[in-house]
Amino acid sequence: MHTNHNSRWAPPHLRHYPLSSCIFSDILSPLVSFFNIKRPESDKYRRKKEWVTAALKGCLKLLIPKELPTPHSRSKHPHLRRIFRRVSVSRGNGSSSSALKLVNAENFAGIALLTLIRADMQQFKDKWIACVSFGEQTFRTHISDQTDNPVWNSEKKLLLEKNGPRLARISVIETNRISKNNIVGYCEIDLLELLTQDSDSDFEVFELVDPLATGKVVGKISLSCSVEDPIETEKNFARRILSIVDYNEDGKLSFSEFSDLIKAFGNQVADNKKEELFKAADKNGDDAVSMDELAELLAIQQENEPLINCCPVCGEILEVSEKLNTLVHLSLCFDEGTGNQVMTGGFLTDKQASYGWVFKLSEWAHFSSYDVGLNSGSSASHILVFDRKTKRLVEEVIDKKIVLSMRAIYQSKIGLRLMDQGAKEILLSISQKQGREMSTTESARDIPKFVEFFKDQINMAEVKHPLEHFKTFNEFFIRELKPGARPIASMERDDVATCAADCRLMAFKSVEDSQRFWIKGRKFSVQGLLGTYSSAFADGTLVIFRLAPQDYHRFHSPVSGTIEKFVEIPGCLYTVNPIAVNSKYCNVFTENKREVSIISTAHFGKVAFVAIGATMVGSITFSKKAGDHVKKGDELGYFSFGGSTVICVFEKDAIEIDEDLLANSARSLETLVTVGMKLGAATKKQDKNFGKCSLGILADAIET
Q1: Are 119 and 143 contacting, i.e. CB atoms less than 8 angstroms apart?
Q2: What is its main location (predicted)?
C-alpha cells in the first residue's frame, strides 16, 4: 500500500495513514465534529448539513457493491465468542469489575484496549510522557505533573490480527529539556500473551529498562489490556454513522434520516430498497431505527455481502473474513479520524514522539522531514526502517554531522564535481588507511566505545567470544556468532531462499522496480553490475542487503548450490547509505569496488551474488572457493570495517519474494532482517541436471 503524497495536508493525527485521497481527511474529521455540536435549525445550518451529506456521498459512492442481499438472522460472531472469557478483577478499593480476555490467541483478530495507568520512576522527579510503539505507529500520552510517580490513565485501541504486529514497545520519557527529551526506560510486551494470561488484578506491572545500560531497571509501569467486545465495536461504529444523519439528535433514525444515510452510501440498489431495508432494520416496529438496530443491519451486510467495501478514512480495501469483521477496521479508523481516543497519534517512532519544539523548529529551518520513503532532499535527515521481527518502525542511528556531509557530497551537483575532481581517490585512500589502522592493536581500545554507542543494536550475548578476546577493532568487526544464534528458515527445503546478512533489505521483482522505488543513479543497470554475463539475468529479481557498521558483518549463502569462479571488479568506495543510493548524481552499485560470483542451484537456476565495498571498508574476504558446494545459511565471507552491501540477482520469475518485503520496498522502506530469515520460495521445479557457468569473460568485459 502506498502512502499518498497529498497526506501532508491531512490533520496531524491522520498524516501518516495511507490515505487513498486527501479528501477523506479533509471531510470526515470536520464532518463528525460538525454534527457533534448542537446548533439551532437555521437555513445556514441546513445548507451545511446538505453539503456534508453530499460530500460523504461523494466519498462513498464508488465503495459499495452493486447487489444488496436481503437481511436475515444475525450470527452474533460465534467464531469470536468461542475465544473470549469474561473475568472478574478486584480493585484496590474493594470493588470489582469485569474485563474481556482471550481463551485462545491463535488466529485471533480484534481490538485490544491498552491503558497506560501510571509509572514509578526511581531516579528523580520530572514531567513525564509515555509512548506506545505498535507496528508503524507511535502514540503518546499527555505530559504529567512534576513527580516521580506520573499518572496518565491514557488509553489506545490497537488492532490485533493474524500475521500483524503483536509486540508493543512502551517508552517513558522525561521532558525537562527543550530541544530533545530523554527516553529513560522502556519495556516490550507481547499483547496476545498478556491477553491470554490469568490474573486477578485489573492491571499488570512491568519493569522499565534503561536503553543505555543492559539489564538496569529504572522504574516500573502499570497498565491494563483487554479485548473489546465485537458487539460493542459494532455499536460504536453504528453510533458514529448514526450521528451523521441524526439531525434532531434523538438517538434514532426516522425514515427520512435513514433514507439520507442509504443515499450517502451511493448504492442505487440499496436506494431502491430503502423501504424494505428500513422495515428489516426496525425490529420493534416503532417506525425508527435505533443504534442497536442499525448496528445489526450493518453487521448483517458486512458478514454476507459487504455494504462498504473500502474504508472511507484510510482507503484500504476491506476483505470479507470470518476472523475479523470489517467493522473493527472501520471503527478504529473513525476513532483516528475524529480524535476520539486519549493518546495522541501521528508519530512513526518513539524517538520522534520525544522530540521537543526546538527540534521541530530546526526540522523546518533545515528543510528536513520525518517520514517513510526515499532518502533524498528533505527526507534525508532521518532513515526509518521496518523491523521485521517486532513489526515496528525504528530510526537508524547515524550522526547528524555525517548526514549533512553525505547530503552535501552525494545529493548535489557541486558534490558530483568534487567527485570528478579527485574526491573518489581521496575516499579510496582514506578507506584503505582506515582499514590498516583498524587492524592495529591500538584500535582495540575503540571497541568498548563502539559497543556503548550501539548498545541497543549489538547483542553481545550472541557473540561467540567476549570483548577481551578481540585484539584489534577489525577482529571485533568481523566477529562470529554462537552456533544457533541465526536459525535458518526451512533448512530442509532447498526451494526456500533466506536472507544473506543482518541488514536492511530491499527487494524488487525487476530492475525497473528498483529504479522506480529506490536506486536513483542514472547509470544503474544489471549489465553495469554484472558485465557481459548479465544477459542471463535480464528482467530478473533484485535483492539488496545493506549492512550498517553496527551489524554482524559476515554474509551467508541465501541458497543451496555450487559456487563458480569469483571475479573481483575494482572501483570506488562510495558510501552505501540510502542518502547516496537515492541520489541521481552518483551510481553507487555500478562504480564501487565489488566481487561477483554465480551460484548454480537446482531450484532457482543461476543466482548472482555480489559483495560490494563501501566507504571505510578495508576489504572483502570470501571464505569459500570456486567449486565449493554450499547449503543455504553457510558462511560465504565477511566485510572488514565499514558499511557494505550484498546484492543478489535471480533469474526472471525464478523466485517469489515474500509479500511483506515487496510491499515495504514498494513504499521505499527498508526492512530490518537477520541471517536465515525467509526471503522467498522458488517458482520453478527442481532441475536435476542444472549446469555450471563460467565467469571468465566477465572480468574481461569489465576491463573493457
Answers
A1: no
A2: membrane
Distance of CA 635 to the CA centre of its chain: 29
Integer distance in angstroms from the first to the last C-alpha of the chain? 43
As a whole number of angstroms, the distance between CA 599 and CA 691 comes to: 11
Is the CA virtual torsion 619, 624, 627, 630 positive or negative? negative
Given a contact cutoff of 8 angstroms between Cβ atoms, the answer to whether 657 and 639 are in contact is no
- Give the strand pairing for 670-673 and 384-387: parallel
* Distances from the Cα of 405 to the Cα of 381, 456, 580, angstroms: 11, 25, 11
Q: Is 590 helix (H, G, I), strand (E, B) or coil?
A: helix
Residue 22 has pLDDT above 60, yes or no: no
Q: pLDDT at position 508, please?
A: 92
Distance of CA 66 to the CA centre of its chain: 35
CA pair distance 609, 573, nearest whole angstrom = 19
What average pLDDT does the segment 366-389 reach? 58
Residue pair 629/594 in contact (Cβ under 8 Å)? The answer is no
- pLDDT tier, 19 (very low <50, low <70, confident <90, very high otherwise): very low
State what percent of residues in the chain have pLDDT above 90. Answer: 25
Q: For 45-89, how does the pLDDT look when each residue is reduced to its tens digit (9 = 90+)? A: 555 555 555 554 444 443 333 343 333 333 333 333 344 455 444
- Residue 106, Cβ density class (10 Å: 0-12 exposed, 13-18 middle, ≥19 buried): exposed
Evaluated on CA atoms 322, 327, 329, 331, the torsion sign reads: negative
Question: Helix (H, G, I), strand (E, B), or coil: what is residue 649?
Answer: strand
What pTM, to 2 d.p., does this model score?
0.63
Instruction: Please provide the average confidence, as pLDDT, over all residues in the chain.
Output: 72
Question: Cell numbers 568534487 label which residue?
Answer: 418
Write down the pLDDT at residue 567.
83
Calpha distance 544→648 (Å, rounded): 7
Nearest to 237 by CA among 174, 176, 308: 308
DSSP character for 699?
H
Residue-wise burial string across 59-87, b where 16 or more C-beta atoms lie within 10 A, e elsewhere: bbeebbeeebeebeeeeebeebeebbeee
What SS3 string covers 162-213?
Answer: CCCCCEEEEEEEECCCCCECEEEEEEEEEHHHHHHCCCCECCEEEEEECCCC
Residue type, 556: H
Average pLDDT over residues 511-532: 72
182-217 confidence digits (pLDDT tens): 889 999 999 888 888 777 677 899 999 988 777 789
Residues annotated as catalytic are 502, 556, 644
Q: Which helix (H) or strand (E) holds 329?
A: helix 326-338
